[in-house]
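> example.struct
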């Protein structure tokens, strides 16, 4: 089984998977704590517009998806901060329009036969060295921001009213969290795809939340768990020749089921 590690594509997949898992653990914790799961899902699907535009205009997929996702995140931040009663409507609209734009641009691209499955369910085995450089840079940025502004982000995440009274710019940090979520969603798409990205951002976090006593420990534990699920999922997908993204999510879901079962048994024994 270990001979698979001799292949460059598998080495790249493992490195990218672990990097994305760490980023997902950090940002996934913020998404769950701030109750942004629906918004993150909207950003994930909206980013397909950037993928379609990147294919049509011939620039890097990551760049196009990131730019589109960030703009969508800023728009969603503005809407959710100013018109909370219409969040579902606007997010659903942006979600649908973003995907429609992506599909139209792909259709208009002459002579291009895109494999939609690779974007819907991930293509981690196709990760290149340039992709790893991009993912590493983003992870470095996320860690830097979390270290530099941890107290402010913590305050905004748990009590925005208190944070505002303390003079913290709630709108700025709320928008920053959404922008970082957008960028993380884009790199996570490479691992598990548009359809499954929310599961990667929430399943390990849910387990970590039960095992941690602070936001920082939740981020660390969820990053470790996500990395473990990703590595196991990769080997399972290689062994049984199945889609890697789906394999990673199924391993995560199975682990969650086992974890919940253990908690239930423990509760009954006590």
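> example.seq
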């Amino acid at each position: 089984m270990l001979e698979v590690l001799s292949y460059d594509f598998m080495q790249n997949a493992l490195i990218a998977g672990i990097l994305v898992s760490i980023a997902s653990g950090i940002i996934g914790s913020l998404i769950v704590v701030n109750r942004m799961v629906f918004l993150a899902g909207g950003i994930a699907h909206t980013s397909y517009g950037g993928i379609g535009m990147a294919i049509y205009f011939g620039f890097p997929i990551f760049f196009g998806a990131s730019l589109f996702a960030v703009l969508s995140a800023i728009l969603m931040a503005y809407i959710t901060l100013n018109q909370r009663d219409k969040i579902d409507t606007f997010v659903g609209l942006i979600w649908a329009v973003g995907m429609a734009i992506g599909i139209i641009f792909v259709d208009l691209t002459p002579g291009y036969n895109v494999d939609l499955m690779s974007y819907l369910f991930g293509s981690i085995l196709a990760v290149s060295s340039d992709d790893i450089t991009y993912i590493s840079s983003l992870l470095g940025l996320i860690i830097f921001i979390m270290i530099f502004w941890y107290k402010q982000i913590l305050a905004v995440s748990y009590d925005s009213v208190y944070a505002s009274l303390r003079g913290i710019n709630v709108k700025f940090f709320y928008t920053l969290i959404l922008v970082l979520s957008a960028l993380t969603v884009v790199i996570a798409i490479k691992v598990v795809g548009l359809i499954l990205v929310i599961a990667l951002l929430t399943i390990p976090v849910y387990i970590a939340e039960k095992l941690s006593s602070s936001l920082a420990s939740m981020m660390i534990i969820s990053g470790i768990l996500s990395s473990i699920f990703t590595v196991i999922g990769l080997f399972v997908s290689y062994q049984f020749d199945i889609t890697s993204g789906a394999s990673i999510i199924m391993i995560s879901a199975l682990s969650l089921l086992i974890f919940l079962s253990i908690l239930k048994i423990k509760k009954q024994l006590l």
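> remarks
DSSP finds twelve helices and no strands in the chain.
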